[in-house]
Amino acid sequence: MSEESVESTAVPKGSDQPRVKSQKLAAHYALPLSSVEAIIKIIKGYAVASNGGESAVNYKDVASATGLTPSVVSRNNTFLAESQIITSPKYGFYIPSEATVKFARESAWDEPNAKRHLRSIVKGTWFGSLVAQNFSMRSTLSRDDLKKVLAIKSGASEGDSDSLSKLIDFLSYIGIISESENGVFSRQTEVDVPVLADPINVVALAKEGEIPSEKRPERRPENCPQGTGTLGSFARVQINLNITIASISELNDGDALKLRAWIQNVLRGND
User: Do both 162 and 198 map to the same domain?
Assistant: First the structure.
């Protein structure tokens, strides 16, 4: 296992004794070393600097695109690369993944919904799989419990506590987990509802298919004689749902779930 040397602070200031190097065990996996805000800036910066993934760029290019210092970008590259958010075609240069580029482009218009692209990447990482496994056995976890689970898997030491908190914040930002008011985490139910503007007038869904007549009641136009104007053995039906939301700020997660359930009922043909 590799080791990282750090200076000990045990030697009194002004002492003639030589400083002793203490040893800190390195984690098996790379962890984020900056805040979630900085991490997201770096992710978007790679998409911008690489012109949508068309060319490989280095940390200095991303620093110029984001306004972050080069050191902040550089020290988070290993975490982003191990997570497959960026890939390295050659040493020191990186290209954002297709999902990363999609996130960066869509987030300018609808960041909450654009996060689904990052979720699709993170679900395949060691920490995404670990969180899903633990929440399949427990409905909630405290921050300390979640940090402990991640620390054991990653081989992190006490010195990595801050980075583990940053990883939890990243998972919360992209919507893998959600934190309650009392600081307890739960696995967030993924519901992606298209949101374009405020206010919104959207054709939310259109479904077209063949429906056997024996599974549906016979229907005919009003005042139509018996035996005419009915649906045949199969009929092509198209349903357009027009949804108007007066204010996005008033649409919470509970409303979104109810809306999705109602849409699904309509598409199933429930009366």
Answer: no
Q: Specify if 23 maps to a domain.
A: no
Give the ranges where 50-97 is alpha helix by DSSP (H): 59-66, 70-82
Instruction: Give 28-72 pLDDT, tens digit per residue.
Output: 899 999 999 999 999 999 999 999 999 999 999 999 999 999 999
Q: Which residues contact 29 (CB under 8 A, 6 or more apart)?
A: 82, 126, 127, 153, 154, 155
Tokens of 73: 């970008």
Taking only the tens place, the pLDDT of each residue in 142-187 is 999 999 999 999 999 999 999 999 999 999 999 999 999 999 999 9
> Based on the domain organization, do 199 and 175 belong to the same domain?
no
Measured between alpha carbons, how far is 72 from 5 in angstroms, rounded to an integer?
Answer: 20
State pTM to two decimals. Answer: 0.64
